[in-house]
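Could you help me review a protein record that somebody else here produced? What it holds is a sequence and that sequence's fold in token form. I need someone to confirm that the token line plausibly describes how this chain folds. Take the sequence as given and treat only the tokens as open to question. This is what I was given:
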Amino acid sequence: MRPLRPILALALFAVLAMPARAQLAISPPGETPPPAATPKAKAPAPAPAPAKQPAKPAAKAPAKAEPQSTQSVPPGTDIAFGAYQRGFYLTAFSTATKRATENNDIKAMTLLGELYANGHGIPQNDLKAIEWYRLAADRGDREAMFALAMLKMTGRGGARDREGATKLLAAAAKLGHALAAYDLGLLYLEGQLFPQDFGRAAELFRAAANAGNAEAQYALATLYKEGRGVAKDPRQSARLLSAAALAGNVDAEVEFGIALFNGEGVTKDEARAATVFLKAARKGSAIAQNRLARIFAVGRGMSADPVEATKWHLISKANGGSDLFLEDFIRKQSPETREAAEKAAEPWLTMIKASRS
């Protein structure tokens, strides 16, 4: 299983490494499968914008003309958040400011914190963001608690304060904030701010998983798989992996594919496993690419295809994977097969190379 990681790569928690991945039983008779290919460690992601709500545009929107009137807005519409989501940040700022100062509107305070934290429509200002987030958090807004915890955890607007951040995460988690529960669960696995407690981590992951958080579903699945903090239960593990995979979690897709192929906690289904591996492989998972190459090499779950097997092995290898069986398999192929595979892999290899330059 892959190491667990904090939501939004925020806290850079030193989480315990999970056990090595299970092997796929797709080697030729009498051969022992090689260790799972492990992609190179990813560099920590930069600190993200602190709040989850409201939903942010994927990238900063170009300047837009602000709406001239709100008379056509349906009754009950939140003008401030609606403007924010459409990229009309000045309208969002002015409307939220009025609501926050005149009506003590908690959600408007949180929105102002978000605008200042990200510099949307106004100059970025962490101190102002903290001020507004704190006002909303003190009044019980869980989104503001989580956002403020993230700023404290990364030291934006002041010194890093992990203890203060943890208290805010606990408060937000108690109010049902799924991301806060997940990150707090990781802290219990870490065991630095308080004693390591797999049982408590499992409780928090379960709360977040039940709220639909795919990272938490994957995390809880790892605990069920290994019997840490909960009784070992391959079926529960597979069920959670399935849910997380359905939500698009790549690590869960890989692990669920392995469970399907080997029949661990779920009915064995090599064809379905191959489909799951293909989905994860196309997202760039070196592990899935390796498993898919083996499937094409031996013809289990999909028809044997030496060109596809060679192609996916080349891609996995470029992503940091290794596999002696596949290396030997490729050496036995005709020059025409290798040439066709190299041509098919070329766009992937070019993209991988460009991503590292």
In short: The first helix runs from residue 79 to 86. Confidence is low (pLDDT under 50) at residues 7-22, 27-76. Residues 188 and 196 are 5 Å apart (CA to CA).
